[in-house]
Amino acid sequence: MIIREQRPSVKEIHLGGRINEHELEILVDCGATRNYINSEWVERFDLILKEDVAIVTEFGNNNTETSNKTISTSIFMPLLDKDRWITFYELEKSKNYFNIGIEILMNNDVRLDFGKDTISMEGKDYSFLHEEHQLDLDDLLCRNINFKCSEKKDIDKMISLYKENNYKYA
């Protein structure tokens, strides 16, 4: 997990995930009300778009984009230890490939508190901006990874990759 602070009042969380057996990084944006996918990834994963209600999205730089195409797909997020069916609006201008609203984590006993800079799992709070809690939190997150691999070495390899690439603090 990577935590980035853009401004004092806005934080982002980048989580590892998987769609159609492809590893990816998902942005959890505390300000997002919808889920978005960049059009490049729609093509890369051969996802099927459908017509939907048109929405206008305003980016942080005050640019806007209108989209009326969505995809619904299953995404595996190790933090949640399960697949989630999510609907994304397609955007061409978005610099983030996958952007989900914070409500996606508000179940499964996972809670984020940006005011206190904590993540709660299994009833225990961890500060996600303080290094002294990093090892405990990384171990807890890795225990929640449930890759359906046939051999233990595959699971160990995936845990190692996630620890190296996703569950670090910026």
UniProtKB/TrEMBL annotation:
Gene3D superfamilies: Acid Proteases (2.40.70.10). InterPro entries: Peptidase_aspartic_dom_sf (IPR021109). This is Protein DDI1-like. It comes from Vairimorpha necatrix.
